[in-house]
Amino acid sequence: MSEDVSAYFGCMVFNDEEMRLRLPKDIYRQLKKTIAEGKDLDINIANGVAHAMKTWALENGATHYTHWFQPMTGITAEKHEAFINPAGGGRVIMEFSGKELIKGEPDASSFPSGGIRATFEARGYTAWDPTSYAFIKDETLCIPTAFCSFSGEVLDKKTPLLRSMEALSEEAVKILHLFGKTDVKRVITTVGAEQEYFLIDKKDYERRKDLIYTGRTLIGARSPKGQELEDHYFGALRTRVSAYMKDLDRQLWKLGIYAKTSHNEVAPCQHELAPVFTTTNVAVDQNQLTMELMKKVAEKHGFACLLHEKPFAGFNGSGKHNNWSLKSDTGINLLEPGESPQDNAQFLLFLVAVIKAVDEYQDLLRISVASAGNDHRLGGFEAPPAIISMFLGDELTEILEALASGSPVAGRGKMQMQLGVHVLPPVPKDTTDRNRTSPFAFTGNKFEFRMLGSSFSVADPNTTLNTIVAASLRDFYNELEGAKDFNLAVQELVRRTYKEHRRIVFNGNNYAPEWIREAEKRGLLNLQSSPDAYDTFLLQKNIDLFGSFKIFNSVEMHARYEILNEEYSKTVHIEAVTLVDMVNKQIRPAVDRYMTELSSSVASRKAVIPQLECRSALERISKLSVLTDELADRTDRLDELVHQASAYQGSELAHFSQRSLISQMQSVREVCDSLELIVDEKIWPYPTYGQMLFYV
Ligand code: ADP
Ligand code: MG
Fold it and tell me: Do residues 77 and 224 share a domain?
């Protein structure tokens, strides 16, 4: 018998349906209005909502509530408060007020703030984001929340995201009004985040300090079989994995998350989950929850879920595809090629707005996907390169090229296209998704930003995307606003914008070495490492951009810049120290033990037959001995570099870590991996790549 998913879908969410049922009519209406208009919440409405929310939460087994927020670490944070209040006579009542709903006060002084709170205020406050539903997790009512300091500086990833959505909406609406769509009041951005992950046996995970402390394997020799046969991609799911996926889907559905597709990925033990897209801030929350549940459900099934971008060298890493589009409150997808001449013109205008944005702010997009973990992917062999370019597909590119050169558009005879007057030849949808190597691909009615790392919050990339596109639209509006002939002005604007920014369009193979040279000729940025990318964050044009839309002020930009570099350096530091620890405390003792074993076996053999040569054993001992000496030297050098690093800070430290620590870690690894191939696997202290990846 098939189960009735609709019976429990969203049962742990205080969704619209619950609000409609439980709130007094006028409060419900006012709340909806507040949400639709993106206004702040009035305290009277908040009181009504808080009461209903509490009643619902108690009925569903919650005893605590928390303002669930996303500090700049990129993970979620929560501080649980019980609903209980003393009621006299030693009794207790369960209370939750509007004030507590809209404003909490976490003493969150150890969240990264880039120095903001040190200089201003020691505490921050949190405020409910009423556009994202509250939900119950672990008997706790979780209230999706934005987080600010008392002086108003933003301390989280949600606030800037909400501001960027607002900015984009405002600019897009102005453009739509010029096209006569005066009924449109809001434009929202939609996101569908496809999530990749690895599942390995929990027992293997627990035996590896590198996985526990850093999320990736710092050493590990190649297994006899790799992913060369590609026999895992879309392969049949193993029973245990299938049980895990089913359980995960159920947990996600209860939280109202439309987990839709699950399949195996290219690397062994790698999988993907894709949800149905939704409003961007909700998609951000849901992706965070998805990652959290992936890990939790894994434990229950005896797995460890790895969300690191590159858990295993030599195997594909994990990314996240950020599918992004724009939708009006009247239901039009603004990145869907239209059918009427006017709709075509509008589509092309929004399209070139994105092209201009991506070209002008390659640096910001690159930063939004930069991390120590993702550096192992971007520029590797399976992920997009570090160079940002856009895939439009041949048909669309031809149309834009024809418009730019003033020549007739293919399929339209000799006629030159006039935007707003002629109909475009149809842009076939399925052919637009052929190129899987592009970092930023148009896929028929949305863009797919493919550079995100698997462990990322999708907040930053979307904050950036929304803001840079808002900037293009603002420029467009200023130019079109007073135009005498609107159609002609749009045509001219599309033509010129495309000509100015066509260098960012590349439909070819992004992995080909020729592309790197070609991109350089075109003057595109190639920011290889995260510290290189971060260096561009504080360029005046970027400070101006975020400042003009009130997303970040200059103080916040500087704080964020500090945090980015700090997080990078800390990650690399932990990796280096973990590796030194593994070598000194586990690998060298293991190799010593093996050498002792070999020596005593030689000795006992010689005791029986004195003239025996024992050549292979002796060769092995001498080889191991040379390698361990080398390992000791290289590890001491790494340790020395770790100490040298303390002389640097900020961006300099990040560059030092990238330049010196990472390459030295690589050099230590080489010796470890050679040793692993010689030492008896019963003595080697870690499960091998083969054991971890082929035995689940
Ligand atoms: P794949 O990239 O694996 O081929 P699809 O192209 O079907 O898969 O994209 C899947 C993702 O794109 C899903 O998460 C889906 O919800 C999302 N998506 C589809 N339409 C939109 C849209 N208009 N806005 C944002 N995301 C969308
Ligand atoms: Mg995809």
Answer: no
- Do residue 546 and residue 573 come from a single domain? no
Among all ligands shown, which has an atom nearest to the Cα of 331? 1
Question: Both 145 and 270 in a single domain?
Answer: no
Same domain, 138 and 258: no
Nearest CA to ligand 1 atom 11: 192
Residue pair 523/503 in contact by the 8 Å Cβ criterion: yes
- The binding-site residues of ligand 1, defined as CB within 6 angstroms of any ligand atom, are 190-192, 194, 274-277, 321, 323-325, 333, 443, 445-446, 448
Number of domains in the chain: 3
Ligand 1 atom with the smallest distance to the CA of 194 is 14
Measured between alpha carbons, how far is 696 from 306 in angstroms, rounded to an integer?
A: 14
118 pLDDT above the threshold of 60: no
Query: CB–CB of 27/47 below 8 Å?
Result: no
420 within some domain: yes
**Given pLDDT bands bounded at 50, 70 and 90, which one contains residue 249?**
very high
CA distance 393 to 429: 10
Reported as a pLDDT band with limits 50, 70 and 90, residue 114 is low
Q: Which listed ligand is nearest to 451 at the C-alpha?
A: 2
Expressed in angstroms and rounded, the spacing between residue 447 Cα and the centre of ligand 2 is 10
Q: What is the DSSP string of 432-461?
A: GG--TT-SEEE-SSSEEEEEEETT--SHHH
pLDDT tens, 515-558? 999 999 999 999 999 999 999 999 999 999 999 999 999 999 99
- pLDDT, average across residues 640-667: 97
Q: Is 114 within 8 Å of 558 (Cβ atoms)? A: yes
Token pair 């020729």 in the structure block, residue: 514
Neighbouring C-beta atoms of residue 406, cutoff 10 Å: 9
Question: Does residue 562 fall inside a structural domain?
Answer: no
Cα 19 to averaged position of ligand 2 atoms, centre (Å): 34
Q: Are residues 171 and 150 in the same domain?
A: no
CATH number at residue 640: 1.20.120.1560
Q: Which atom of ligand 1 is nearest to the CA of 443?
A: 6
Residue 557 in any domain: the answer is no
The whole domain housing 82 covers 5-155
Rounded Cα distance between 294 and 307, Å, is 9
Q: Tell me the best of 187, 320, 323 to mutate to test the pocket of ligand 1, counting ligand atoms within 8 Å of each CB and taking the most.
A: 323
Same domain, 206 and 255: yes
Q: How far, CA to CA in Å, does 278 sit from each of 39, 245, 256, 322?
A: 20, 21, 11, 12
Among 257, 258, 277, which residue has the most ligand 1 atoms within 8 Å of its CB, making it the best to mutate?
277
Q: Give the ligand 1 atom nearest the CA of 321.
A: 2
The answer, yes or no, to whether residue 689 has pLDDT greater than 70, is yes
In a domain, 561, yes or no: no
* 502 CA from centroid of ligand 2 (Å): 24
- Among protein residues, the one with the nearest Cα to ligand 1's atom 17 is 192
Q: Whole-model pTM?
A: 0.93
Q: Pick the more confident residue, 114 or 18.
A: 18
Ligand approaching nearest to the C-alpha of 336 = 1
* C-alpha 272 to ligand 2 mean position (Å): 10
Residue 431: which pLDDT band, with cuts at 50, 70 and 90? low
Domain C-terminal end among 128, 155, 182: 155
Ligand 1 atom with the smallest distance to the CA of 325 is 24
pLDDT at 121: 46
Query: What span, in angstroms and rounded, lies between the C-alpha atoms of 685 and 676?
Result: 9
Nearest ligand for residue 324 CA:
1
More confident residue, 115 or 583: 583
| Mean pLDDT computed over every residue of the chain | 90
pLDDT tens, residue by residue, 283-341: 999 999 999 999 999 999 999 999 999 999 999 899 999 999 999 999 999 999 888 87
13-26 average pLDDT score: 93
Specify whether the CB–CB gap between 24 and 36 falls below 8 A.
no
